[in-house]
UniProtKB/TrEMBL annotation:
Name used for this protein in its record: Deoxyribonuclease TATDN1
UniProt-listed SUPFAM superfamilies: Metallo-dependent hydrolases
Molecular function via GO: metal ion binding; single-stranded DNA 3'-5' DNA exonuclease activity
Keyword Metal-binding in record: yes
Lineage: Eukaryota, Metazoa, Ecdysozoa, Arthropoda, Hexapoda
A Pfam family hit: TatD_DNase
Family: Belongs to the metallo-dependent hydrolases superfamily. TatD-type hydrolase family.
Organism of derivation: Euphydryas editha (Edith's checkerspot)
Lineage top rank: taxon: Eukaryota
One cellular-component annotation, GO: cytosol
Length: 167
């Protein structure tokens, strides 16, 4: 089991939260840290995961979320604490379309020319690539109203801690 290996349990859940929580609850406190990979759920779903101490992985989906009650709200209302946030690419999926019409202007304005150039130059055929991570960090920071450097530092620390890379 992942606990014995001292590694996190990474779960990709789509429209099956109730079943997933029921299954994970059977293991109680024997679970290692849990990461909800490529979270695309609602605020209510995010809160359930956060209350259980799970990490939420945020990808380029942040550009695609057009709901009023999804990941953008979790970030803009600061419901998702930085210490439970991971930045992911979900490569080659979830391309961060920074020109998306539904992105608020203050978020678009938080993007640097450098990160936009990386995405435009290296994410060919609208494939998400690891070089898109700075843009995803900047998008998250824009929704949080924080500096990208602070988000990058916090999420890097989370990853180091979670994967036991700081030892």
């Amino acid at each position: 089991m992942a606990c014995e290996l001292r590694k996190p349990l990474i779960v990709h859940e789509k429209e099956a939260q109730d079943d997933l929580i029921k299954i994970l609850d059977e293991f109680g406190n024997r679970l290692p840290p849990v990461v909800i990979h490529s979270f695309t759920g609602s605020v209510e779903q995010g809160i359930k995961y956060i209350e259980k101490g799970f990490y939420l992985g945020i990808t380029g989906y942040i550009c695609k979320d057009k709901s009023d009650g999804g990941i953008r709200r979790l970030l803009s209302e600061r419901i998702l604490p930085l210490d439970k946030l991971l930045v992911e690419t979900d490569s080659p999926f979830m391309y961060p379309n920074m020109r998306a019409s539904k992105l608020p202007l203050h978020v678009k304005d938080s993007l640097t020319e450098r990160s936009m150039n990386f995405v435009n130059r290296y994410c060919t055929f609208q494939r998400n690539e690891p070089c898109a991570l700075p843009a995803i960090v900047e998008l998250i920071a824009g929704f949080l109203g924080q500096r990208p450097e602070d988000v990058a530092l916090a999420t890097a620390f989370n990853a180091l801690k979670l994967f036991g890379l700081s030892q």
